[in-house]
Amino acid sequence: MSNYGEYLDNSTVRFQRLLPGPIERVWAYLTESAKRAQWLCAGDTQLEPGGIVEMHFHNVSLSGPTDIPRPDIYKDKPERMSFGGKVLACEPLRLLTYTWEFEDEHSEVTYELSEQGDKVLLVLTHRRLDTRDMVLSVSAGWHTHLGLLEDILNGDDLRPFYKTQTELHTEYERRLA
After folding, report:
1. Which of the chain's ends, N or C, has fewer CB atoms near its CB within 10 Å?
2. Any idea where the domains of the chain sit in the sequence?
3. Do residues 49 and 150 make contact, with C-beta atoms less than 8 angstroms apart?
4. Could you give the C-alpha distances from 10 to 1, 15, 59, 153, in angstroms and in order?
5. pLDDT averaged per 10 residues in sequence order, the chain, 177 residues
6. Which CATH homologous superfamily contains domain 6-176?
7. Under 8 Å CB-to-CB from 118, ≥6 apart: which residues?
8. Do 67 and 160 touch, CB atoms closer than 8 A?
9. Could you tell me which of 171, 166, 170 has the C-alpha nearest to residue 67?
10. Is 56 exposed, middle or buried (0-12, 13-18, 19+ CB in 10 A)?
């Protein structure tokens, strides 16, 4: 299983990660604000169709002392960004799908969990990405954030956020060429 995102079509990328269980622990890191803030973003999630999803990103807080400074490509964006979405489907411990409503982008994120012995297979699919630039940004972003989730669940030191994301952005640019 590759850690790199798989392009299902021009507007969809899918990631797979085999994570340490139990499944309840992984689900908590996807759905509970304080836990999700450690690897992605804070914000409440109402776990029912039609429920609200809040996403409060502060990637600078994910950047440790060994990281590089915030890259120039993010200088025109605020350090803190908030947006939301709506839950489309929720089957606790198995499936969560919600809209991702950022600026003009209205895409869709699905997390699917399945037990694999003492591990948990996470399949993350981000659909309806409007442009090549968005596919590139989302690919490098999810890959970086999922790496942090792996570090946390494995009890490892967190990898440097911006250094990792910058390297992955270059690699995904090459892969999309």
Report:
1. C
2. 6-176
3. no
4. 21, 15, 27, 31
5. 93 98 98 98 98 96 88 86 96 98 89 98 97 94 98 96 96 92
6. START domain (3.30.530.20)
7. 20, 21, 22
8. yes
9. 166
10. middle
SS3 for the chain is CCCCCEEEECCEEEEEEEEECCHHHHHHHHHCHHHHCCCCCECCECCCCCCEEEEEECHHHHCCCCCCCCCHHHCCCCCCEEEEEEEEEEECCCEEEEEEEECCEEEEEEEEEEEECCEEEEEEEEECCCCHHHHHHHHHHHHHHHHHHHHHHHCCCCCCHHHHHHHHHHHHHHHHC
What token pair was written down for 136?
Answer: 């590139």
User: What pLDDT is attached to residue 95?
Assistant: 98
Q: Tell me, what amino acid is at 86?
A: K
